[in-house]
Amino acid sequence: MKSKKYKINIYILDGIIIFGTHIDPYYGGELIAVNPDGTERWRNLLAHDWIESAPAIGEDGTIYVGSVNDGYHPTSWGYLHAVGKLSPDAPTAPDVNGPSNPRLRIMYDYTFKSTSPVGRQLYYYVSWEEKVYTNWKGPFDSGEEFIVKHAFYEAGTYIIRARAKDTNNLWGPWGTLTVAIPRDKSTNNMLLQRILERFPLVWRVVSRLNVR
């Protein structure tokens, strides 16, 4: 079996290595900076796609990088990202609200709300950190809630991330909500019951332990 090879486009500035992740259509899209000693300096999740180009630095310190949503299909499209100081007119980080301890396989409402300092309409992008993301949805009025129904199908801890952009394509910072989903106890009990029914000797031992 041949191992997969992934290209990494990097930019080095004063010993700081800046590169974008390019893994697969579901994992990637982060711009990461690493210090000369190998420690992480910062990372910025730009989108749920691939960082395709090498970063370029403008005179004002703005980092420019290109991404593509899917490199396999002829209908693929890409974006040019500019990472730097946020414009004072950019939308605020969305407030992300919803159950933080949901049950598996049940649909819940999650709400996202951002405001534009200049009253522009907004679009929302949501990453659910489980190979699921929501393409830009909108437009919504500034301060209007964007509601999405979502269900989780595997136990674990997830960080829901959302950001807003306005009709002038000014992007705001990320808002987050951490969700922790325990394993379904009923599923575990059913599995234990099946094991005990298949091995009656084990059932007798367990029963005696319970009596004591």
What this model shows, in words?
With 212 residues, the chain is mainly beta. It has two domains: 74 residues, no CATH class; 87 residues, Immunoglobulin-like (Sandwich), CATH 2.60.40. The protein is 12% helix and 41% strand. The chain has two helices and 15 strands. The strands form four sheets. Strands 1-2-3-4 form a four-stranded antiparallel β-sheet, with no helix packed on it. Strands 5, 6, 7 and 8 form a four-stranded antiparallel β-sheet that branches. Strands 12-11-14-15 form a four-stranded antiparallel β-sheet, with no helix packed on it. The longest helix is centred in the C-terminal third of the chain and has 14 residues. It is globular, with a radius of gyration of 23 Å. The N and C termini lie far apart (55 Å). The N terminus is likely disordered.
Q: Please estimate the helix content.
A: 10-25%
- Specify the CATH homologous superfamily of the largest domain: Immunoglobulins
- Spatial ordering of strands, largest sheet: 1-2-3-4
Characterize the biggest β-sheet: 4 strands, antiparallel
Residue windows where pLDDT falls under 50 for at least 5 positions:
1-5
Radius of gyration: 23 Å
Strand content: 35-45%
What global shape is seen? globular
The CATH first-level class of the largest domain comes to Mainly Beta
Straight-line N-to-C gap: 55 Å
Per DSSP E runs of 2 or more residues, the count of β-strands stands at 15
Q: What is the helix/strand order?
A: EEEEEEEEEEEEEEEHH
Please state the second-level CATH architecture of the largest domain: Sandwich
Structural class: mainly beta
- CATH topology (fold) name of the largest domain: Immunoglobulin-like
Mean pLDDT: 81
How many distinct domains? 2
What is the number of helical segments per DSSP (H or I, 4+ residues)?
A: 2
